[in-house]
């Protein structure tokens, strides 16, 4: 090979070696996505969901309270109607966890229902034909002697309709969850004794129990009934 041609080839090879390699394309990473807060906060920041309304706490009646009665102050007129008016007053044993005014108001409503015995005027001083006394089980036992209540029953003791606060608060299985109806029975039954009425028996299977049946013990084969005159129509404002 001629010397000149050889020299040209050497120079070309050196030029190629000195030429920088072509850059390799680098894939660009996608821009980082902007953080979008999720609809639900993280567990560290989550707020507790509002809890449902608490169930009513059952009223706990103590076996014994102070052993002393207090007359519930206030008066209330008898419902409109015909017939003699019976004066009565309400007493509540001190220390019971039952609102005395609310108890007196419910008693008055029950006594003046048109299905009840008569028309009753509430007073807070004598003379009064009937005294209705809300009592702890222990005071009920003492007040009802010589009758044996076992701390569960109520009674008429010759001067007072003794209402056992435990029964007033809890009811009995015979009335199921209808505590209002049982309370009406309790008042009407014990006030019935104060008015001279005596115990009765179930008149037949499936019939309404007369209010003077001892329904707190058993209905026999009767149906529960809290009223002396259940057939009377209840009137608004009566």
UniProtKB/TrEMBL annotation:
The keyword Magnesium does not apply. It comes from the Bacteria. Residues 38-60, 217-238 are annotated as: Disordered. It holds the Pfam family DUF3152. Residues 1-17 form the signal peptide. Keywords: Signal. Residues 38-50 have a biased composition (Low complexity). Residues 60-219 form the DUF3152 domain. This is Uncharacterized protein DUF3152. It comes from Nonomuraea polychroma.
